[in-house]
Structure formats: structure tokens, C-alpha cells
Design goal:
This protein is an alpha+beta fold and 353 residues long. It contains nine helices and eleven strands.
Length: 353
């Protein structure tokens, strides 16, 4: 089990082969001194020849002489390597399920709050619009009313992000060519990038169209570009935006972020946003898409949560590769339209959660 010949082990204390050496030595000496051996099995980690480790359950028995006095200890070892692997897998599965349940609960809460808040906003905005219609140009309250209207619109955008995360938004679905959509945003994206973040585009015209809400996809692109720009931390850097076609084979497993649905085999469109910024620490990577989690001083933590909600609602998948000081790559895949030659007539449908 440990890779040694008998001659290499005979005559050496057993604790020399145990990772918890001092703890094992004290346990053996305590048993010999007391004359008793615990009935329960103990778990020790043995060190194999070469340094690899062997988790084992150790069941010990007292060796007694004719007078019932302890003369030694006999132990049996059971290799529990596979059991440990199964336990670790169950723990990972339980943690993943807990995370999914937590995010679903937050989504339900966010969706409910956003709907109620949006109804209040519509009342405020409607009354402001009526007041503006009755307020003559140059009147003192005019600028105040315009500020209220602007604030209402910003708050309405915020509720739209909450609804997108929660999967409660209403989408206007049409055939969207991702490459054309991004080309139409070039000036806006260059403004977002500023002077220190150089934008590079690799847009494949042959990528399949996707059935999607164009406004929501623009929000995805803008949020990812904004995060990449902020990752530059005011230093010179580069952001690469790519679109290409991708074939998904049978048996594809979505990332842990999108395991609420399966991705059937077929033709997909892939959007990649890659930067060489500061990267993301492992802890931040685990919590990246949690609503209201942010590492920014003035952040509100909804941008990437909304991105995840939009990708999920469109039946896609999202992967993130990053590390501290190593930049970040977001990779989003969306299913190609079932009938690419069909017209792009709009039709409002509720997004699925």
C-alpha cells in the first residue's frame, strides 16, 4: 500500500510513515501507557514512498498476554482514497446546489422588487410629463422637473437590469447579426474605451444570426467593455472583441453559471471580450455574477449579474478565464437561429428564467 519493501519498514516506528507524525506518536504512546485501545477507527494520512499520500482508516486491537496485560497493538489499515474522492465530489455538488438556490432566491426577490419599483416610477414619470406639458419655457420649476424625469429614466434602466438578471424582462426578439450589431456600436464603444484602452475587433460575418433582443445584447457588450476598461486602472492596455461561428457537439456541458438549461448540438455564435487588465482574484471569480457584489468603490454590482441573466434567458452559456495580473476573458455563446433565412420581424415574448 505504501510502496515499501518489508525490510524498509520493520523496526521503524509506525508514526514515521504518518503525515500527522507527532499526533500519531502521542496517540500510540498514550495507548501503550494506558493499556486501552479506542474502539472507533481513526483516520490517518500515510505518506507513500515517493511522497504521495494515502488516506486510511486505522482499526487497532490490543495484544494481551495470558494475564490480560497489553503487550502491543495490532492495527488494520483500510484505503479510503475513493471514499474521500466521493465525499469531496458530494461536497462540491452540495456547494453548487446551494449557490444555485441562493441565486434563484435573489433573482425572485430582485424581480419582485423591480416590478413594484417600476410601477411607482411610471406613476412619477407620468405626472412629471404632464407637469412639463403645462410648464411654460423659462419657468422656474422647468429645470427641476427635467431633473426628476432624468432621474426616473436612470432608475428605470436600473430596474431593467434587475429584471434582466431575474429573468422577468420582456424582450423584443428578432434575428440579430452580432458582428453587425457591434459595428453599429463602434463610436459608442470607442467613447467608453477612452484614450488608454485600445479596441481591437475581429468580427466574422459568417457567424450565425441569433434570435435575441438587440437592446439586451448591446447592454451585454457595453457592460463587458466597461468592466475591461475599468480593469486597465487608467493604464494603457488592449481590449479584443471577437465574434465567430461555433459548432457545439452532443454532450456539451454548460459552465456552472448556466446549468439551469442544456445546450443542444448545433451552430452557435460566440462573443469574446478579452483584456490585459488587472485580472480577477480567485475569490472574486467565484462571486463574479452575484447581484450587488462589486470590487469597485462606487459600483452597484449589477452589471455582470444582468449579463448573466440575459445570457441565461437567451439559452446561452458564459465562461470566464482570469487571474490576478493576467487579464480577463469573457466568452459567451448563443444558439444560432433555427431558420436563419427567416425575416426579422419583432415579437415581444416574456424571457424564460
Amino acid at each position: 500500500m505504501l510502496g515499501y519493501a518489508a525490510a524498509d519498514m520493520v523496526g521503524r516506528p509506525i508514526w514515521e510513515f504518518i503525515l500527522q507524525r507527532e499526533e500519531a506518536r502521542q496517540a500510540v504512546e498514550r495507548q501503550l501507557a494506558s493499556g486501552t485501545v479506542p474502539e472507533a477507527s481513526l483516520e490517518w494520512t500515510f505518506v507513500r514512498r515517493g511522497g504521495s499520500r494515502l488516506p486510511a482508516l486505522v482499526k487497532s486491537y490490543a495484544l494481551l498476554d495470558a494475564q490480560g496485560r497489553m503487550q502491543g497493538i495490532r492495527s488494520a489499515l483500510q484505503d479510503i482514497t475513493e471514499q474521500k474522492k466521493s465525499d469531496a465530489e458530494r461536497a462540491r455538488f452540495a456547494a453548487r446546489m446551494s449557490e444555485i438556490q441562493k441565486l434563484e432566491s435573489i433573482g425572485l426577490l430582485a424581480g419582485g422588487i423591480a416590478h413594484d419599483f417600476n410601477n411607482l416610477l411610471m406613476g412619477i414619470q407620468g405626472n412629471v410629463e404632464l407637469a412639463l406639458m403645462k410648464t411654460p419655457a423659462g419657468a422656474t420649476p422647468l429645470s427641476n422637473l427635467q431633473d426628476i424625469r432624468a432621474a426616473c429614466r436612470r432608475a428605470s434602466e436600473l430596474t431593467a437590469q434587475l429584471l434582466a438578471y431575474a429573468g422577468k424582462g420582456k424582450y423584443m426578439v428578432q434575428l440579430v447579426n452580432l458582428a453587425e450589431l457591434i459595428r453599429g456600436m463602434l463610436q459608442l464603444l470607442k467613447t467608453l474605451a477612452g484614450h488608454h484602452a485600445g479596441l481591437q475587433f475581429d468580427l466574422e460575418d459568417g457567424a450565425p444570426c441569433v434570435e435575441a433582443d438587440a437592446t439586451q445584447l448591446r447592454q451585454v457588450v457595453m457592460n463587458l467593455i466597461t468592466n475591461s476598461v475599468e480593469a486597465m486602472q487608467q493604464k494603457q492596455g488592449a481590449i479584443r472583441v471577437a465574434v465567430r461561428g461555433l459548432d457545439i457537439e452532443p454532450g456539451y456541458v454548460p459552465s456552472r453559471f448556466c446549468q439551469n438549461h442544456t445546450l443542444p448540438p448545433g451552430r452557435y455564435a460566440e462573443l469574446t471580450v478579452q483584456d490585459n487588465g488587472c485580472g480577477i482574484e480567485p475569490e472574486g471569480l467565484q462571486r463574479l455574477f452575484e447581484p450587488f457584489y462589486t470590487t469597485k468603490f462606487m459600483g452597484r454590482g449589477l452589471g455582470l449579474a444582468a449579463v448573466l441573466g440575459i445570457v441565461r434567458n437567451h439559452g446561452g452559456d458564459i465562461n470566464v478565464v482570469s487571474g490576478a495580473g493576467q487579464g480577463t476573458e469573457f466568452r459567451i455563446i448563443l444558439p444560432g437561429a433555427a431558420a436563419a433565412g427567416r425575416g426579422a420581424g419583432e415579437r415581444p415574448i416574456p424571457a424564460s428564467g
